[in-house]
């Protein structure tokens, strides 16, 4: 937790510097709101409200039906595509880290609507909830962005490996890999 708080404070300071510029870019291209809020599942399946910079058009799910983002998603804005490639869209999640709802490293927090389906279709999917979800994780750096049940099945293997082998040195390795991915703009 100490590492989460220390890294979270550093990321929060970076976020304070970047937020006005990112907010202007989002507002200029697609208006308000700047932030996007979504319910995700945390440790033990407890729901929490996650905040990110908005990367899609307003009302991206007009019928209320949750959808995975796919390659070339027409709902994505140009600024949003840049924010995702650089993973800057995740910076506001530092608030969830500081509140203890997330960790810097762990399985990606999932939307309850997707979790129900994935838990039904993938054995042991609930096991990933034994640790706090993370801003980054072993699955996020080892496997591409998931947009299907099969992708979730592949990522679960990485998540369970992380749960079993979680150490401070492993977390540092994941954080360094994430920084490298961010610098290379390989996010999606």
Residue-averaged pLDDT: 87
Number of helices: 7
Our measurement of the CA-to-CA distance between the termini, rounded to an integer number of angstroms, reads 28 Å
Overall geometry comes to: globular
Beta-sheet strand percentage?
5-15%
C-alpha Rg (nearest Å): 16 Å
Largest sheet: 2 strands, antiparallel
Q: Give the fraction of residues assigned to helices.
A: 40-55%
The sequence of SSEs as H and E is HEEHHEHEHHH
Query: Stretches where pLDDT falls below 50 for ≥5 residues?
Result: none
Strand order of the largest sheet: 1-2
Number of strands: 4
Structural class: mainly alpha
Task: Please give a handful of descriptors for the protein shown.
two-stranded antiparallel sheet; 7 helices; 11% strand; 188 residues; 4 strands; globular; mainly alpha
Provide an overview of this structure.
This protein has seven helices and four strands, in the order H-E-E-H-H-E-H-E-H-H-H. The protein has helices at 2-30, 78-86, 94-98, 112-121, 138-142, 149-165, 168-183; strands spanning 35-41, 47-53, 103-105, 134-136. Strands 1-2 form a two-stranded antiparallel ribbon. A two-stranded parallel sheet has the order 3-4. The longest helix is centred in the N-terminal third of the chain and has 29 residues, at 2-30. It is globular. The model has no long low-confidence stretch (mean pLDDT 87).
Mind sketching the topology for me?
Elements: H1 2-30, E1 35-41, E2 47-53, H2 78-86, H3 94-98, E3 103-105, H4 112-121, E4 134-136, H5 138-142, H6 149-165, H7 168-183
């Amino acid at each position: 937790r100490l590492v989460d708080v220390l890294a979270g404070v550093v990321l929060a300071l970076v976020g304070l510097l970047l937020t006005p510029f990112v907010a202007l870019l989002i507002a200029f291209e697609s208006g308000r709101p700047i932030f996007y809020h979504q319910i995700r599942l945390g440790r033990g399946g407890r729901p929490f409200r996650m905040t990110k910079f908005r990367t899609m058009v307003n009302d991206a799910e007009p019928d209320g039906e949750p959808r995975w983002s796919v390659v070339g998603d027409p709902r994505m804005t140009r600024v949003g595509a840049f924010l995702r490639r650089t993973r800057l869209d995740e910076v506001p999640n530092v608030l969830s880290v500081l509140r203890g709802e997330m960790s810097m490293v762990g399985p990606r927090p999932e939307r309850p609507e997707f979790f129900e389906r994935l838990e039904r279709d993938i054995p042991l999917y609930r096991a990933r909830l034994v640790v706090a979800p993370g801003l980054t994780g072993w699955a996020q750096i080892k496997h591409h962005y998931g947009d299907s049940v099969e992708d979730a099945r592949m990522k679960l293997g990485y998540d369970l490996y992380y749960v079993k082998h979680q150490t401070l040195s492993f977390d540092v390795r994941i954080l360094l890999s994430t920084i490298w991915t961010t610098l290379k703009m390989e996010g999606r």
